């Protein structure tokens, strides 16, 4: 799972609270991490593969949200691979991992593996948090018609830049001045924990606000299109609201245990002796939430695909299909239409004015179609008769 305790464990003089959770049934814990991450990895890839008899999802060309959803899944997949690799080494080479506890050891590879694997996991999941925040921002901007595919460059700069900067800064402060002298006080650990949990808390606090504002903006757009608010449009607005709720529900389920566990461990660190009988319930709660983290954190990837697209089925279509080249179809249609000169159409100005008047309506349809993409069930086919889906 993703926890700043992984980096703290790399310190030979680690604190007692970190030693408590990391030494509690390590074989069982690593086995749970491998099992949960493997199941999530396979199901996430299965969800993303094309399915037989299923038309590809169409997204508005001016939207970057489809790319963001894919990048969130990629971050979860790569983070899950890091968990599997790290836990496999811990299970397969216990003697290699035991050298991490040696203060003046000459073998630097155990510490390098500990730090490198922990940074990999933290970086990928932190990037996933930033991408999820960008998704909420992009959804709101698309409805406000202030976003497009070009904004994905800004999202890349913000996401990877902040993720790398916070990760490197937190690790540097934790291991300063050297790996053997880290964790001598909370002044080393607290900045590291802040940089780790800052994007997580940002998603928990800000994303619900942005999603709520987006849903309100969608309702205003649907009412303003034709001056009416039909049952189909109301159903579409509810569908978008449910989708945002599912995303936040998955996030809370997968990461609330991390916040509870870290609060309990910090409380134990502040005690003079964490082995006191009065702290037995606190220790038990910390160990229980630690195991829960190992199961739920890796499952985020699969659960997010369910929130994004729903269950896409088992029938995978791996056949290569020839795609029609756009300019070929355009050329053939142009030749057919221009084989003979057409008469002058004196009503062209009227049609042009109608196209201009429907531009705003088409932009509204694209924005709302983007937000509800991949989330329309078979029972909601009536919604497709709404003007939102005409032309798609």
Automatic annotation (TrEMBL):
Q: Where in the cell is it found?
A: Apical cell membrane; Lysosome membrane; Melanosome membrane
Q: Which InterPro entries match?
A: GPR143 (IPR001414)
Annotated membrane topology is: Multi-pass membrane protein
Coiled-coil residues are: none
PANTHER family in UniProt: G-PROTEIN COUPLED RECEPTOR 143
Example of a GO biological process term: regulation of calcium-mediated signaling
Q: Which residue ranges run through the membrane?
A: 24-46, 67-85, 119-141, 153-178, 190-211, 244-267, 287-311
Q: Which family does it belong to?
A: Belongs to the G-protein coupled receptor OA family.
Under the subunit heading, UniProt states: Interacts with heterotrimeric G(i) proteins. Interacts with ARRB1 and ARRB2. Interacts with MLANA.
* Keywords on record: Cell membrane, G-protein coupled receptor, Glycoprotein, Lysosome, Membrane, Receptor, Transducer, Transmembrane, Transmembrane helix
Q: Which domain of life is it from?
A: Eukaryota
Q: What is the lineage of its organism?
A: Eukaryota, Metazoa, Chordata, Craniata, Vertebrata
- Gene Ontology, cellular component aspect: apical plasma membrane; lysosomal membrane; melanosome membrane
Which organism is the protein's source? Ciconia maguari
Q: What does this protein do?
A: Receptor for tyrosine, L-DOPA and dopamine. After binding to L-DOPA, stimulates Ca(2+) influx into the cytoplasm, increases secretion of the neurotrophic factor SERPINF1 and relocalizes beta arrestin at the plasma membrane; this ligand-dependent signaling occurs through a G(q)-mediated pathway in melanocytic cells. Its activity is mediated by G proteins which activate the phosphoinositide signaling pathway. Also plays a role as an intracellular G protein-coupled receptor involved in melanosome biogenesis, organization and transport.
Protein name as annotated: G-protein coupled receptor 143
Write out the GO MF terms: dopamine binding; L-DOPA binding; L-DOPA receptor activity; L-tyrosine binding
Gene symbol of the encoding locus: Gpr143
């Amino acid at each position: 799972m993703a926890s700043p305790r992984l980096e703290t464990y790399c310190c030979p003089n680690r604190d007692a609270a970190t030693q408590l959770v990391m030494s509690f049934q390590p074989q069982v814990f690593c086995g749970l991490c491998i099992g949960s991450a493997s199941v999530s990895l396979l199901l996430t890839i299965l969800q993303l593969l094309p399915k037989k008899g299923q038309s590809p999802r169409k997204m508005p060309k001016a939207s970057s949200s489809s790319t963001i959803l894919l990048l969130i899944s990629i971050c979860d997949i790569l983070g899950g691979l890091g968990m599997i690799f790290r836990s496999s080494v811990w299970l397969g080479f216990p003697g290699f991992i035991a050298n991490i506890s040696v203060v003046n050891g000459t073998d630097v590879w155990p510490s390098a593996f500990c730090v490198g694997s922990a940074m990999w996991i933290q970086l990928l999941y932190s990037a996933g948090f930033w991408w999820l925040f960008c998704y909420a921002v992009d959804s709101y901007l698309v409805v406000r018609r202030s976003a497009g595919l070009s904004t994905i460059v800004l999202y890349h700069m913000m996401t990877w830049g902040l993720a790398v900067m916070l990760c490197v800064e937190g690790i540097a402060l934790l291991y300063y001045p050297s790996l053997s002298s880290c964790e001598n006080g909370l002044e080393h650990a607290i900045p590291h924990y802040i940089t780790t949990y800052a994007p997580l808390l940002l998603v928990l606090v800000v994303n619900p606000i942005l999603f709520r504002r987006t849903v309100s903006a969608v309702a205003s757009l649907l009412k303003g299109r034709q001056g009416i608010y039909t049952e189909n449009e109301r159903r579409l607005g509810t569908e978008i609201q449910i989708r945002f709720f599912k995303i936040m529900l998955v996030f809370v389920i997968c990461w609330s245990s991390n916040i509870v566990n870290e609060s309990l461990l910090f409380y134990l660190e502040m005690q003079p002796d964490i082995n006191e009988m009065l702290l037995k319930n606190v220790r038990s709660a910390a160990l229980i939430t630690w195991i829960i983290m190992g199961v739920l954190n890796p499952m985020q990837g699969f659960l997010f695909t369910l929130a994004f697209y729903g269950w896409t089925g088992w029938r995978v279509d791996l056949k290569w299909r020839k795609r029609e080249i756009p300019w070929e179809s355009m050329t053939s249609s142009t030749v057919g239409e221009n084989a003979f000169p057409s008469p002058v159409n004196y009503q062209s100005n009227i049609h042009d004015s109608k196209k201009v008047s429907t531009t705003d309506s088409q932009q509204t349809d694209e924005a709302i179609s983007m937000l509800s993409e991949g989330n329309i069930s078979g029972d909601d086919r009536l919604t497709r008769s709404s003007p939102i889906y005409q032309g798609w």
